[in-house]
Amino acid sequence: MHNKKPNVFTIAPSSPFFREMIPALLNGTLVENFRYDPLNPLLLASVTIYVPTKRAIQELRSEFIEITGKKSTILPIIKSLGDVVEEKFTADLLLSYNLNPPVSNIQRLLELARLILIWRNKLPDIIKDLYPESPLSLPISPANAIWLAKNLADIIDIIETEEKKWEDLHALKNEKYGMWWLLAADFLKIASKYWTERLVELNASSPVGYQIALMRAEAEHLMKGTKGPIIIAGSTGSIPATARLMSTVANHPNGAIVLPGLDCHIPTAIWNTITEKSTNITSSNTTYSTHPQYSLAKLLDFLDIKREDVKRLGNVSNEMYGRSMVISKSFLPPDTSDMRNTDILENKIPNIQKCFSDVALIEADNEREEAISIAIALRMSLDENKKKSALITADRNLARRVKLELTRFGINIDISAGIPLSTTLHSSILTSLLNAIFKLNDFMAIATLVKHPLAKFGFPEKYLSRAKNALELVALRGNKNSYDIMDLKSLVLDRIATQKNNTHVPHWQSRLSEEDKELAVLLVDHILQCITPLVTYKTNKNSTCGNLSISDWTKLTVTCLQNVCLDEHRKLPNLWFEEEGKTLSSLFSKIIETGSCIKANAIEWIDIITRLIDGETVKPKIEKSSTLFILGTLESRLLNFDTLILGGLNEGVWPKNTAKNPFLSRVMQSDLNLKTAEKYIGQAAHDFEMANGTRHLIYTRSLRENNIPTIASRWLQRLLVLGGTDFFDNLKKRGQCYLDWTRKLDYTTKQPHYKRPKPFPPLEAQPRTYSFSEIKQLINDPYAVYARRILKLDFIPHFKKDPDRTDRGTLFHNIITELIKKRINKNTPEINHLMKQIIDSHFEKENLPPHIDIIWRHLFHKISHSFLEHEEKIQSSIEKIFVNIPAKMAIESIGIHLTGFADRIDLLKSGFVDITDYKTGDNPKKETAQKLIDPQLSLEAAALKAGSFSQIDCRKVANLFYIRLKQKFKIDCITNDKKKYSADELSEKSLKNLIEIVTLLQNGEQPFISHLRLSEKSNIQSEYDHLARVAEWREEYDIS
């Protein structure tokens, strides 16, 4: 090695990094004995350049082509510091550094999880007894072990990256951290001892250790002499291994390092303090370690050079120089605020308004508004002849929102940081498949699997959509009982048989043809055949099947998944070929390759694969746009843009909240001089500082997130405080145009209030029959009748329908009916046994969820005693009881029929009859029935007087009753109330009212209006209120 001063340069944030560096290389500024000759296109091939990221490699290559005039030139060797290539190293060198192949991330997680499970089983009794009154909660499942393995892997990476010793970790004294540290320390032996031993058994290296060894080998190779120039560009040397490599290059005779944005504005005294703090291992002051220049100060100290020795490349305009000075002042540590205030008073800070004249601030009301504003800003940058524009944000949700909003303008771009695999269709079909097979009563999983766009089931494409819709309508909607996917065939057949025997099939089911139903049955056969490999291991509905290894579960799952996604030609057109499919396929392959012997049952396997998927990211292979980009902070480093948007400038995003490790607290990390959280904040601050070097810059933030107020990023707050009120107002004023466009984008001319619907259907379209119970709705809400009977619109129930009061009423009514038919009363022999038999048989048919079954069963037992007591009182006056008796009454004057069933009619010995209706609630109230707002009982009385109950000869009605089958058993008689209401009066008046209403409707004198009786509507809602848009027009009417 030649003895020379380290060759170090820096490029200001406002200068395009590669555009300044490349000419400096070509003209001999970077490396004295190298100068590019255009006549020698092979000359650049001798140059080696290291950059921080793969995206920076692409950018550097593009800039080389642009600057060298797009001539035939062999470009330099360009490498990413994170991917040092080892092919050129000799076998002896690899062996000397113990460079076994690195273990994959998946294999590491599974191996660590296995070690964790072993540790759990062998946990020392002394640790178990730490807190005997509060037993320790240990990872009792493989899925929990994988979660712990992720945290353990993070600790391993931190320790190895910072090149600390495990002995330092175990030397921490438990007196300072409490007794729990004993448990954590014992747990961490998995990483320090057992994991190291396991790597030897696997003949593998840890990923970080492998990379560090490669960097050492690379440094050793460089030290032996390399003819061509060697340059490390854009790294801050925050990792010790990288810093050593940078030191080697900086001291190499043909070497140079180019630092990004070294701050030359910081006063020397403060810079020296930062340098001192960066090298002081015992320093507990985190203020300086979060400074954007902290890593660079530490690097320069390691290189043994002063800031003044670093040479500057590129020219900076006065405005951008002033802006960088302002940003530098805003980052001064708090204990130097006096110096900052003095600079402001003495006008040492340049004209901040002028320096930031091309900067705007968007403060949106919420995340949606922020995303639309950003999308508009990116779209407008295309009209302003901006060659390259980008959004930089660490908020993935914001990035996805902006990507979606850009499609408004026909712009489709990828998020460079990728999207979580867990948010893709491939992940959703996998989890739906496993949940549908192994979890009881997961109705949504079964429905999602059936309707999933990737699910083909080998079914003919021509009929697939039709079969899926038919299966949904026949069997998947409105289920109240427990079932799993293996019950699907019987469920479909039962539903089809029930519909054939049902005279009141909903319109949405009645539209299904016999061919549709056959397709649904055939599709179920295909589904069950597809999932056979996994169903074999489902021994009962609790999924407590025998344990399998994770590798075996993966193979079975892949087989089933492929079966489900096969098309009619036995091909997989959409499963493995897109980037999402390739990522999932790679995950499965890695799991199988590990040969993991961790055992898990079916439910545990679902949790395991879910946790493994959570750590995977799908990255775009090819950029869809060369002008617009959505980048994370890492991907954006060293890139140059004409317009730059810093999105999500709130605390928690800039800087992003650092994940807390459950085994190493921030205090412990500080004691070990790790300070990983502070280092991350400092790196993010440096990213913010570098981004401010873009002339046309837009800051964005939302004032509320998830409807919760947000706090502006600490760095934005510092800048705004430094600039003052006028500065803040001007930034917002320049950003207001984007907000104005956002608010106008979805703006439409003011629409008149939606009017209350008043349809006038023709006479031939109007119903010719009504049921007794339907008349209440015809009187109060004719529009609901119009929607259901004329438009033939029926509410489609949810996939899972919890048993409700209607179901309870039907169940109780059926039991009461059987009690009456069997003439059971309190004097019946063995009444308790008979009652139990009847109740049990009806409840078993319903197959209710256990928590509902026990409540309803207890309630009915209480009701039954009161009911039997009532029956005993009235039996002496009754000649005969009729239950569920049908009636059909013709009303010739208006050409309709009134039909229905009476719950109960008692033929009395006096020659009269009592008509009874069972209710399980308080509605309809007695007064409602008397005012004929609900005339069901009164119309049944009218039908009886007209002889429409063919089984009953008597035409005289004595009383009308509601029997309330509820906790407080009650009987309401709506007739003969203080001599006001007789059955004859109510029956005659109800029939007259019905004739008048129907006549008005038939003649077109009254529309089928929505909620005719608004004043009575307070507790009345209809399934068709959304169709009638009641919420929009009801405020215009006084309903008090």
Blueprint (SSEs and pairs):
Layout (H helix, E strand, L loop, with lengths): L7 E4 L5 H10 L21 E4 L2 H14 L9 E4 L10 H6 L8 H17 L3 H4 L13 H20 L4 H5 L3 H4 L2 H23 L4 H17 L6 E4 L6 H11 L4 E6 L7 H12 L6 H4 L4 H10 L7 E3 L4 H13 L6 H9 L6 H4 L3 E6 L2 H17 L5 E4 L3 H11 L12 E2 L4 H14 L4 H9 L9 H16 L11 H14 L5 H4 L3 H17 L1 H4 L12 E2 H16 L13 H16 L4 E2 L1 H13 L2 E2 L9 E4 L11 E4 L19 H6 L4 H16 L4 E7 L1 E2 L2 E2 L4 H10 L1 H21 L23 E3 L2 H7 L1 H9 L14 H17 L9 H16 L3 H25 L3 E14 L4 E13 L4 E7 L6 H5 L5 H10 L11 E8 L5 E4 L9 H21 L21 H4 L1 H4 L7
Parallel strand pairs: 1-5, 1-6, 2-3, 2-4, 4-5, 7-15, 8-13, 8-14, 14-15, 18-20, 21-22
Antiparallel strand pairs: 9-12, 10-11, 16-17, 19-20, 20-21, 22-23
Helix pairs in contact: 1-2, 4-6, 4-9, 6-29, 10-11, 12-14, 15-32, 18-19, 18-33, 20-21, 20-29, 21-22, 22-25, 23-25, 27-28, 34-35, 36-37, 40-41
Q: Could you tell me how far the N terminus lies from the C terminus, measured between alpha carbons in angstroms?
A: 94 Å
> Main beta sheet, described?
6 strands, parallel
Mean pLDDT: 86
Instruction: Characterize the overall form.
Output: elongated
Strand content: 5-15%
- What's the CATH class of the largest domain, please? Alpha Beta
CATH topology of the largest domain: Lambda Exonuclease, Chain A
Helix content estimate = 40-55%
Count of DSSP H/I helices: 43
Question: Structural class, please?
Answer: alpha/beta
Strand order of the largest sheet: 3-2-4-5-1-6
Using the CA coordinates, give the radius of gyration.
39 Å
Architecture of the largest domain, according to CATH? Alpha-Beta Complex
Question: Which ranges are low-confidence, i.e. pLDDT below 50, for 5 or more consecutive residues?
Answer: 540-544
